[in-house]
Amino acid sequence: MLAESPLPEGDEKVRAVQSMFDAIAPRYDLVNRVMTFRMDVGWRRAAVRSLRLSPHAVVLDLAYGTGDLCRDVATAGYRPVGFDLSWGMLAHARTEAPLAQADALRLPVADGSSDGAVCGFALRNFAALPPFFAELARSLRPGGRIALLDVAEPANPVLRAGHSVYFGKVVPRIGGLLSDGAAYRYLPRSVAYLPPPAQLLDELGAAGFTAVERRLLSGGITQLITATREVAAA
Question: What is the domain range of residue 70?
């Protein structure tokens, strides 16, 4: 099973992640709400607010899951377009936004054709982050905005200890009761894929983004990373 084996890399990781999300798609929303005590709703809305784009802007939702962020993007007055590697997620999506099955490292969009992009808790699941950031930069127009959510570790030692127990022990039990146990045992282990925050921000800068910022939410258990596509000098 994915959770008991060494963490996969490269193409093996892509296949494993795709299979895992196909399996958990039917109860994905339920598990998210239960294990985050519905805090995930506020995190997504914070991400969309941080875009600060013009009305009707085209916003890519990458690894859209069942479409939660697509709905928030639409509510904000933007035009969402979703891409996800998992066919199971596409089949269970609950959004009126245009959706397609695609690898976020090879998006079927023209250069500079989008105004913004969001991604909710999927950075750990891509084969590699620098190619993903490069694909974001290719897809966005100069001045376009991104908002990326993922898990984080609280700086406060007491909160960090409590979060470690909850994320490492309780979340897998919740996932096992409500969905696929192996997938939710993998979830806390997958944090190892995330680079240190400073490295992550540097990689975004190297890909062509400016105003790169990282903000911690809910006591530090979630991070929101925002940036602007660099505007070429005249």
Answer: 10-150+196-229
